[in-house]
Amino acid sequence: MSLKPKFNDYFQNLITSFESQNQGIKVNWVDIPWDGMENKILTAVSAKTPPDVVNLNPGFASQLAGRNAWLDLDAKIPADVRSSYLPNIWKASTLNGKSFGIPWYLTTRLTIYNTDLLKQAEIAKVPSTYTELAQVAKQIKDKTGKYAFFVTFVPQDSGEVLESFVQMGVNLLDASNKAAFNTEQGKAAFRYWVDLYKNGLLPKEALTKGHRHGINLYQSGETAMLTSGPEFLKTIAQNAPKIAQASSIAPQLTGETGKKNVAVMNVVIPRDTKKPDAAVKFALYLTNDQNQLAFAKAANVLPSTVKALADSYFKELPANAETYDKARTVSATQLQQAEVLTPTLKNFNVLQKAIYDNLQAAMLDEKTVDQAIADAEKEWNSQQS
Questions:
Q1: What is the DSSP letter of 252?
Q2: What's the CA gap between 94 and 82, in Å, rounded?
Q3: Are residues 232 and 126 both part of a single domain?
Q4: Per-residue pLDDT tens for 179-198?
Q5: I need a labelling partner for 51 at 20 to 30 A (CA). Which of 11, 69, 325, 345 fits?
Q6: pTM of the entire structure?
Q7: Considering the domain boundaries, does residue 355 fall inside one?
Q8: Which residues form a coiled coil (predicted)?
């Protein structure tokens, strides 16, 4: 998804190499923009005309795994091969104990911050927790007129706010997948975001625009911080060199738990593929140690195999390291403690929508926080009956 034209050379070389080692197998790479991906895949799977190998993420892939759309990989991939991937990351592509995907590349969020804006706001220490973020958000707004940061509450977009709930100590669901978030901790998390919005410390577009708007705001100097993966540092350097020059990085924001999130991209194989063996072979080739390390270097992401992640590239910095290089080592260090914070569910999108819709209602004074969280609980539980 969204890999052309930037990585054309990488994939053309990889495909040529694979085809030369596997006579008779031809690979046709089709790149789909992120925005149209879900509809295209749903249509292809429903029509039983899917691609043989698909690059997705566990969140969306699990929705279709719940409909039995993907090949059961436990029967196709030996245990010793599965164990070459990071255990917690492999687990992210399982549902009800069955593996539906192979991990590919990973990112852990960092705090990218504008040193000039923080200096103007007289902030000496970059916030490391959401509590600290709320404190500096007011100071930044008062001193500079800018926002501290942007986060989206659009239900179909990023799960960052749900992840923040878990980082703040909220259990989203119980063992039966019923809502477990209507607690004092859950109300505190709801209130945290509602208060930031009502106090004018979040951009109004947080309710209507997706996470990529946050990158645009940061590049234009309208926000002091960006919570994002290190892969966006090059984008910022190309689009806003002055902002890039003033940018530095800090570890991912977290809550009282200290938990940090990792985002996983995976590859899945549709159950209706006509060439399951060739598809598995290519998926494993794409995600092997050597190719993951090469792609991680090209894209400034992290690999999901144990051996590739152990490479010195993720531990050692060159002399006079650029922000881009520092981000890589901070990101890799975080990965040791990082986990996928939100549950793998076939209808996770319904949970996110219930919480985000009700957060928005509370932000717009249509509901109290208590009513909003109770309604979100009721909406989710009604789907589980």
A1: P
A2: 12
A3: yes
A4: 999 999 999 999 999 999 99
A5: 345
A6: 0.84
A7: yes
A8: none
- Distance (Å, whole) CA 42 – CA 324: 36
Q: Which of 187, 266, 297 is nearest to 1 (CA)?
A: 266
Residue 267 CB partners (closer than 8 Å, separation 6+): 53, 54, 55, 56, 101, 102, 104, 283, 286, 287
Query: Omega before 5 cis (within 30°)?
Result: yes
User: For residue 31, is it within any domain?
Assistant: yes
Give yes or no for a contact between 243 and 236, defined as CB atoms under 8 angstroms apart: yes
Looking at the structure, tell me whether residues 236 and 378 fall in a common domain: yes
3-state helix, strand, coil in the chain (%, to 5): 50, 15, 35
Percent with pLDDT over 70 in the chain: 100
Paired with 305 in beta bridges are: 85
Which pair of structure tokens corresponds to residue 6?
């930037």
φ, ψ for residue 347 (rounded to 5)? Answer: -125, 40
SS3 264: strand
Q: What is the pLDDT of residues 287-344, one digit of tens each?
A: 999 999 999 999 989 999 999 999 999 999 888 888 988 999 999 999 877 899 998 8
If asked whether residues 152 and 287 sit together in one domain, one would say no
Residue 116 and residue 108 in contact, taking contact as beta carbons nearer than 8 Å: no
Number of domains in the chain: 2
| Domain with 218 in it | 110-259+347-384
Look-up of token digits 């290089």: 325
Nearest by Cα to 346 from 44, 40, 65: 65
Is residue 334 assigned to a domain? no
Same domain, 144 and 226: yes
Task: Say yes or no: 87 and 217 in one domain.
Answer: no
Q: Which of 185, 209, 186, 207 is nearest to 196 (CA)?
A: 207
Which CATH number do you get for residue 292? Answer: 3.40.190.10
Residues 241 and 323: their CA atoms lie apart, in Å, by 13
CB 56 within 8 A of CB 41: yes
In a domain, 335, yes or no: no
Measured CA to CA in angstroms, residue 203 lies from 21, 125, 148, 163, 195 at distances of: 52, 23, 9, 20, 13
- The pLDDT of residue 385 is 65
Q: From 292, 324, 356, give the residue that closes a domain.
A: 324
